[in-house]
Structures are given as structure tokens and as C-alpha cells.
Design brief:
12 strands, five-stranded parallel beta sheet, Rossmann fold, alpha/beta
Length: 353
């Protein structure tokens, strides 16, 4: 029988989502589905999430969206975008009867308009109002399939992990999460300039090791300024984006989750540059780790570069609005200009004390 994974946690007898979850369980069972996480008590980690995806044939997200639910949903969407073979043909439905998913969807709609998400998220994370509609949608999508993400491989991946020592006088590593698809020149110039400034301040640049977009520009700026640059990527994304030249160290990983984990392990602070679904995914992971008091995030600052456009609108305004309702003061700092980024990073680095 096919297996569906339910998101969400039932928070006691009076949880308003309890009745919706009970209806979903009953209807899914009656239609021949096996259910993972029926009681809402299974914990997903970066180390096991890909295995959970492999084990499942479909995904249903319930009302009462939490930070962890949103992380799982955006992770599946990123998997669709990057042609993760373990998600091929597996539908995802979001039951949004309480409207709690609306701020999350607003972020994705905004990024689609900004050009960092090429696909329409509504074709992949299908929102419905009722458990009955969720079951019907699962069956329809399993029959008709998931839309093509419009990505084309540019080559084969044969790279392996390699490492070079940190240079003398190294002051720490800054991880830059950003878009690998945005090619607007002014954004690329900002990315390249950030890379240069990291190198000039003896800070290593850690990235997702993509060759294109802002990601490639940041690495280019750091390398050309003589800086130490490292990154992590996975084979199926390397086949889509390639690898930048000049990396000092590279950590090959098998999935996007352990890729994030090694980047976090090897970084002392994080800068969230303009990006797409992958950047949202990475930021949510950082916030979850902070809330869990994970040692990997102890005393590590997170700076969101809310780059302003000609009309004064911030690139990350909808995401910051979303996080304001889910995060705590001090979880992240907002920088509105390129000049504000490094002072915020350096001031909070443990090595600067």
C-alpha cells in the first residue's frame, strides 16, 4: 500500500487541528493509504529527512503551520525544483483550513515575482481547505504526475571532497546563503563585493558551491581577492548548476540536508542574501536550530540582507514579517544596505571579542 507522511504535532486534547487530523487519518486509511507520523510525534532531523522522503509516497501538511512544518514543506519544494529523484511523482498537499499557511505562501509568491523562484509553488504544494479535498488531490496528482520544473542538466558530476587548511590569521568563516539563479547585474555586483569584503577582513566564505547567480558571484569576489572559499553541494544539483572555480575546500554530500549541516558546522556566522526557495529553507533551518539550542548554532549570528529596491521595498520584507511571528528577538539581525552586513557579522563573531 502507498505511504503518506503527515506533518504537524497534536498539542493535547484541545488542539484545534485534532479533529482535522482525525478525519484525515480515517479517510486515508479507508482509501488504502498507510500513514507515517499518524500521532504527530516523529522528529525530523537534517540527518534523517531524506530517508523519510524516500520511505514516503506522498506528503500531507495539516493546519496549524509551525516553523518546522514550513521547513519540511519548503524542503520538498526545493527537492522538486532540483529534480531530486527521490521525490519523482510524489504529491504534496497542504490543508490550509485555518489560513496559517498564508504567510508562508505569500513569501513564495513574492519570490516568484522577484524572479528567484521560477516555478509556481501552487503547482507543487497544493493547498486545499478540507480533508476530503486533500484525499481527492492526492489521487489526482498521483495519476497525472507533477509538473516539470523546467530544469536542464548542464553536465555530469564527478567531483569529490577535498580540503585545504585555513590560512594564517584566519578570523572565521561566514556562510552566505543566496540565489544561484538571479542574474540581475546589480545583485551580482553586490554578491561579488561581499565576497571581496570577506577576503579583505580575513573571513572565509562558505557557500552552497553553485557556479551561477549570486552564489557564483560571491565565491568569485572572495577568490579573486585572495580569500579562502569553501562550499558543499550534491551531485544532482552540480549537474544543474556546476561548481565555481577556485574553491579552497569542498564537501560533497548526498542530499541537500546533510549539505546544509556541513555548511553550518564549518561556519561562524551567516548572511542571508537575496535568494529563492533554497535560501528560505536554509534560513528556517538556522532558526529551528536556534530554538532547539543546537550546539551547531551556539553564538552564531544570522544577518538578513533586506536589500532595498528603487521603490524602497525590502527583498525579504514578507519573510521578515513571517519570522516576526515565529522567532524571538535576537534570532537574527536585519541589514538594509551592503555596508551594514560586515559590521553586524564582525561585532557578533566570537573571535572578535
Amino acid at each position: 500500500m502507498p505511504k503518506v507522511r503527515l506533518s504537524g504535532t497534536v498539542l493535547g486534547q484541545n488542539d484545534p487541528t485534532r479533529a482535522t487530523r482525525a478525519r484525515l487519518l480515517s479517510q486515508l486509511f479507508s482509501q488504502g493509504w498507510d500513514i507515517y507520523n499518524g500521532n504527530g510525534d516523529q522528529r525530523i532531523t537534517l540527518s534523517n529527512i531524506e530517508r523519510k522522503i524516500i520511505e514516503s509516497d506522498a506528503f500531507v501538511f495539516t493546519p496549524g503551520a509551525t516553523l518546522e512544518d514550513m521547513f519540511k514543506a519548503i524542503s520538498i519544494f526545493v527537492g522538486y525544483q532540483t529534480l531530486d529523484r527521490n521525490l519523482a511523482g510524489k504529491p504534496t498537499v497542504v490543508v490550509n483550513s485555518d489560513g496559517s499557511w498564508n504567510p508562508f505562501f505569500s513569501v513564495l509568491t513574492h519570490l516568484h515575482k522577484m524572479g528567484t523562484i521560477k516555478q509556481d509553488h501552487r503547482d507543487y504544494l497544493i493547498a486545499v481547505e478540507t480533508s476530503e479535498a486533500a484525499l481527492e488531490t492526492l489521487n489526482v496528482v498521483r495519476h497525472h504526475g507533477i509538473p516539470d520544473a523546467g530544469r536542464v542538466k548542464i553536465g555530469e558530476s564527478n567531483v569529490t571532497t577535498f580540503e585545504n587548511p585555513l590560512p594564517p590569521g584566519h578570523a572565521g568563516n561566514v556562510c552566505v546563503f543566496c540565489s544561484a539563479s538571479l542574474e540581475e547585474p546589480s545583485y551580482l555586483e553586490d554578491g561579488e563585493e561581499l565576497g571581496r569584503r570577506l577576503a579583505q577582513n580575513r573571513l572565509g566564505c562558505v557557500s552552497g558551491a553553485g557556479r551561477s547567480g549570486i552564489m557564483g558571484a560571491v565565491v568569485k569576489g572572495a577568490v579573486e581577492a585572495g580569500g579562502w572559499a569553501a562550499g558543499s553541494n550534491v551531485p544532482h544539483i552540480i549537474e544543474l548548476e556546476g561548481l565555481p572555480d577556485g574553491l579552497s575546500s569542498f564537501w560533497l554530500r548526498g542530499d541537500i540536508y546533510t549539505r546544509m549541516e556541513v555548511m553550518i558546522q564549518n561556519s561562524d556566522s551567516f548572511v542571508i542574501f537575496p535568494g529563492g526557495a533554497g535560501t528560505v529553507q536554509e534560513l528556517l533551518a538556522l532558526m529551528i536550530f536556534k530554538h532547539q539550542r543546537n550546539p551547531l548554532m551556539k553564538d552564531k549570528p544570522v544577518v538578513i540582507f533586506n536589500r532595498r529596491n528603487f521603490a524602497g521595498l525590502g527583498f525579504w520584507d514578507p519573510l521578515i514579517d513571517l519570522l516576526d511571528g515565529l522567532c524571538q528577538p535576537g534570532d537574527f539581525v536585519v541589514a538594509n544596505s551592503l555596508d551594514d552586513i560586515l559590521p553586524a557579522v564582525i561585532r557578533k563573531l566570537p573571535l572578535s571579542a
